[in-house]
TrEMBL record:
<dbReference type="InterPro" id="IPR024033">
    <property type="entry name" value="OXTCase_su_AllG_h-dom"/>
</dbReference>
<dbReference type="Pfam" id="PF06545">
    <property type="entry name" value="AllG"/>
</dbReference>
<dbReference type="InterPro" id="IPR009499">
    <property type="entry name" value="AllG-like"/>
</dbReference>
<protein>
    <submittedName>
        <fullName>DUF1116 domain-containing protein</fullName>
    </submittedName>
</protein>
Amino acid sequence: MAEDGPRPDGAGARLGGLLVREPRVVAAGIEVLADALVRQAVPVEAVDWRPPPPGTEDALAAVAGLPGHAEANERAVRRMLTARPHLVDVRPAADVLGLDRGTFLHAGPPLGWDGASGPMRGALVGAMLLEGLAETPAGAERSLARGGATLEPCHRHGAVGPMAGVVSPSMWMLVVRDAEHGGTAYCTLNEGLGKVLRYGAYGPEVIERLRWMGAELGPLLADAVRRHGPVDLLSIMAQALQMGDELHNRNRAATALLVRELAPDLAAGDAPRERVAAALRFAGGNDHFFLNAGMAAAKAAADAARGVPGSSLVVAMARNGTEFGVQVSGTGDRWFTGPAGIPDGLYLGSYGPGDANPDIGDSAITETAGFGGFALAAAPAIVRFVGGEVPDALDATRRMYEITLAEHPALQIPLLSFRGTPAGIDAARVVRTGILPVIDTGIAGRVAGTGQVGAGLVEPPASVFADAVRALADTPLTSGAPPDGGPASAAR
């Protein structure tokens, strides 16, 4: 006969107290069961978990069994988190990347003209016009279709580019050096919002702005940075997170801090007052001006973690408007790709999902290094730009701790009691948990020349992480790694 209350012989205690208190229910990936319990007023704690994709079990077991796998991940993420990126110069791409007049870089994994999406084609057309390789958009398209330009990924050259990410020889680049590990990364100057080259627009106003940036803004910034000395970007980023940025789609505070840092050195130069005023007005009026510096800082940090044998740390996430690709530390420069998805978000004016191009850009390097979408909890105001509610931003960041190897010691989130941002995506954890990295991004119009049509959130295809884990399981532990396990790009 069942008895009420605790058993005198202590059996209830031996059963973990199950007979003397209300049970707690945790539902992992079983929505039907969880929903049924909720309808019966039973408290349920839902866990965002899915079983590993079929066919990945052996690869996960093999990676987990790699000698020194945990130590390799620890070494790789430590290198990422101890990077000290500094802005040290601003110079033309032809000088720092060695680009000749017929070579263009682009965002994401490798692609050719035939596989390029609308905004990528629009940006390449604009680059042809900017470099004087074509007189009309139609002429530029014909030349590109005939192979009139060499196309290479930004990542291959230690660079990153937002959205289409097209870099041509005359564009000026931010030069960011990692003072701890010695690597160098590059990114273009930010054009602002609206109809800009990175979103695939190439009208006369776009080309005119780019030519002004090359003739005026780039040299002025170069002079200011050299006069100032290395600018500590990590310090600016840490402060900006305290001020409401997440450093991907919201860079208002970081931009203000960077402009404040360089303004005295801009004013101290010999340039005419009106030129300095125009440069400050442009930078100060463009809330995303810091984005490109932050991307280069993230690239420098991620590259510091490259080439560690046996490590499943993700060192690049990038999209070219057609494919989404990742690279992991232990498999060298190999790309693992899948179809790029359409972001889910808010649209400008009369635009809607039918106008959106699949996800595009190297800017997911920010999430790779532990900010951007991974720091949504630091920027509640971002939900007004990408959709959702403030609790959604908090939940997104908390979820990312499940797939990362560490918390960033310098980038801290006030709303989470100054907990460090989740940093260092582990491809094996992504596969094991089924939790995908969250990326906040702009949305480019699918038709070349349209420009930006919105902003939102996007997830990578799960298959790319499964492919990376399988490849890592088959990769010799000495493959493609520097002798000290340091960044493959350090000798660049």
